[in-house]
Design goal:
Distance between the termini: 104 Å
Radius of gyration: 44 Å
Low-confidence stretches: 1-9
Structural class: alpha/beta
Largest sheet: 8 strands, mixed, barrel
Number of helices: 24
Shape: elongated
Mean pLDDT: 86
């Protein structure tokens, strides 16, 4: 059964009825009045022309009651003169909807109650009204019927402002899809839109799933959802609706604030208006909020977040837009006239009390002042505010930081280091350099330290101080340490095989290496390699590496020492826990921090501290290497006070592997 929508005969019948006697006086057909000479009763006429087409027994029962003589006379008696009924009928499998309009009046000659009855086909109108009632609860942007067999589309309603589509006219489906795509859909989504609306794809998807839905971004950067339903599967008819789901997608479900996408769009719209106001973007996060969730549960954590949001929105900032980016991270778009930096400390300290729990919360904030005629996207502005937050040095003194371009330059440099690391290793841009270590008494080379240099193609070298800290902080240092360790081992193995002179070479290990089972496993294999004497393996660690050392890392170092490898502590004296480090761990050699060496002779206190450190090391059965030896005076002082080894420019600068091997060959 299909819904009849043709309108070729809207006015089906018009009747003149004597209600009092219950007879048909005349029938109007095709504009001509025909008297009812047979005096056919109203009930009989309605039975033949209306009741027989009732769609269900219940509809038939209702119609007989509404159109009975007694019911109409009762309505007239109660003062009703104008009656309207809707009848659902079926004729030859076509579903029809008729509107029956009745005007009641008194014949002044006979005194009888008479009526004019008009029976009108409102199937089309009914279809539109019902569709509106059902579907327009959500302000649909588009409503159309599609015939898969005829490949046509009929737009019942269209609110796409940027295109002109004829409504209630059959047009080729493909042409309509291309029109909507070309004028209404964002260029980034057009290819996908055409593939999702393709008729072949639609037929297959509808047969398999019974429904098809997808989202697309418009030229106004709103998000619309297009959904296809079966309207009449027997006739291969689809119903297509499109609704604006922008707000749905751009709202954070917990706080009701805009999410990241909503913030970007709303702030973008404000900035496009080119107001004279000055704006700033503030990026917030709550310190250690994960601990709040872990201790008190996510339900309480969510309540706290809502309270903080409420406090932020009601604050002196008077945010134009506030959004939750993720987790405990928020952004606010404010007029700089309301940005009072002297009140930020108070804003970023929040106390939560609920009768059972007292929690003190501290926030951090990065601030990006939006310049006039700014060409950055709102997303880039947010990134800069977030970056500024990472430069807060003491959050309890000043829990906010203001963005400047040097932050971005440093961040970009750091990012390039991490991104280019593996490629640089593959392209042999990293080179191992060797700085010899000399015996203080004989002044002969006794070992070396392996250092690393980054020399990009046809570019100036990247200083270690530029990339080593970045790799350590990111955890990528293990890849570089693995490369250095492998290079040094291969050099020693090759020279040993060729019968050439070999010396121990110290390789630096970071704190991350002592947490990485893979690199510890490879080092352990090297130490057990019978082709290389274990005495050739020296490993240097800084005090900071010991600060975070795990139990497995400590056992690993102890195992290396038992095998015969030497463990060195680097930069001794530069940290605040130097003495506890040598107290708690075993070392073979201490490397004095070059800061002490370079200040030799500047004060009696400095000299005495250095002498005491050398004596302390010897009393603990450890040898001492002085780093950064650059002058004859430093050398003589260190020799006089019992330093064991020297390393520094006074004797040799770091050199390439070829230069180092040539030096060893000359030593034979």
């Amino acid at each position: 059964m299909v819904l009849q929508t043709e309108q070729t005969e809207r006015l089906r019948k018009a009747l003149h009825i004597d209600i009092t006697d219950g007879i048909i006086l005349a029938v109007m057909r095709q504009g001509r009045r025909q008297e009812n000479d047979t005096k056919e009763t109203m009930e009989a006429w309605m039975e033949r022309h209306v009741f027989v087409y009732a769609s269900t027994p219940k509809v038939l029962e209702t119609m007989k009651k509404e159109f009975s003589v007694s019911s109409l006379l009762r309505e007239y008696k109660h003062g009703k003169r104008f009656l309207v009924y809707r009848c659902h009928l079926v004729n030859r499998d076509m579903m029809l909807v008729d509107k029956v309009t009745i005007y009641l009046f008194e014949n002044t000659v006979t005194g009888h109650v008479e009526a004019q009855m008009f029976i009108e086909d409102i199937t089309q109108e009914y279809l539109d009204n019902v569709t509106n009632e059902v579907l327009y609860q959500k302000d649909y942007k588009l409503l159309s019927l599609i015939s898969l067999d005829r490949e046509i589309i009929n737009f019942r309603s269209c609110h796409l402002e940027d295109i002109d589509i004829k409504k209630r006219k059959n047009i080729p489906y493909k042409k309509a899809a291309e029109l909507v795509c070309g004028h209404h859909i964002h260029p980034n989504d057009r290819e996908r839109f055409l593939s999702k609306t393709n008729l072949t794809f639609l037929r297959k998807t509808m047969e398999e799933k019974g429904m098809h839905s997808f989202a697309a971004q418009t030229t106004d950067k709103l998000t619309e959802r297009y959904t296809y339903y079966w309207f009449d599967k027997s006739e291969n008819m689809l119903l297509l609706v499109a609704d604006d789901m922008t707000k749905e997608l751009e709202t954070d479900p917990l706080t009701g604030l805009p999410n990241r996408a909503g913030f970007l769009r709303q702030v973008g719209e404000i900035l496009r208006k080119q107001s004279d106001a000055q704006y700033a973007i503030l990026f917030f996060n709550i310190q250690r909020f994960k601990a709040i969730n872990d201790l008190f549960g996510y339900e309480k954590g969510d309540r706290i977040l809502k309270k903080i949001v409420d406090a932020l929105e009601k604050s002196f900032l008077k945010p134009l837009v506030t959004a939750r980016m993720e987790a405990d991270r928020f952004v606010a778009f404010v007029d700089t006239a309301n940005l009072k930096l002297d009140q930020m400390n108070q804003l970023l300290h929040y106390s939560y009390h609920d009768g059972k729990t007292d929690i003190e919360l501290h926030g951090r904030c990065g601030i990006y002042y939006v310049p006039k005629q700014c060409t950055l996207s709102v997303s880039d502005m947010c990134d800069r505010a977030k970056l500024a937050k990472n430069y807060i040095s003491n959050q309890y003194v000043q829990p906010y930081s203001i963005y400047d371009e040097s932050m971005k330059m440093e961040y970009d440099d750091n990012s390039r280091v991490m991104i280019n690391l593996e490629q640089a290793i593959e392209k042999n841009e990293f080179c191992v350099y060797y700085q010899p270590v000399y015996d203080a008494k004989t002044e002969e080379i006794v070992s070396a330290e392996a250092l690393v240099r980054w020399i990009p193609d046809k570019k100036n070298p990247v200083l270690p101080g530029r990339f080593i800290p970045v790799l350590e902080n990111s955890g990528h240092i293990t890849k570089l340490d693995t490369f250095v360790n492998r290079t040094v081992r291969e050099m020693i193995r090759k020279r040993k095989q060729e019968g050439k002179k070999v010396l121990p070479v110290a390789v630096n290990l970071s704190r991350m290496d002592l947490m990485d089972k893979d690199i510890m496993g490879r080092i352990w294999e090297n130490v057990n390699d019978k082709k290389i004497p274990v005495s050739m393996f020296h490993y240097e660690l800084t005090e900071s590496a010991y600060a975070d050392i795990t139990e497995s890392g400590s056992k690993f170092l102890t195992g290396l020492q038992k095998k015969g490898a030497k463990i060195l502590i680097d930069d001794f004296g530069s940290g605040i826990s130097s003495f506890s480090t040598v107290r708690d761990y075993e070392f073979d050699i201490i490397k004095l921090d070059m800061g002490f060496v370079q200040k030799i002779g500047t004060s009696k206190k400095t000299d005495n501290i250095l002498i005491a450190l050398i004596d302390l090391a010897h009393s603990l059965d450890m040898k001492v290497i002085a780093e950064g030896v650059e002058t004859k005076e430093q050398t003589e002082f260190l020799k006089k006070n019992g330093c064991d080894y020297f390393q520094g420019f006074y004797y040799a600068k770091p050199m390439s592997q070829d230069e180092f091997e040539a030096m060893l060959d000359r030593e034979l």
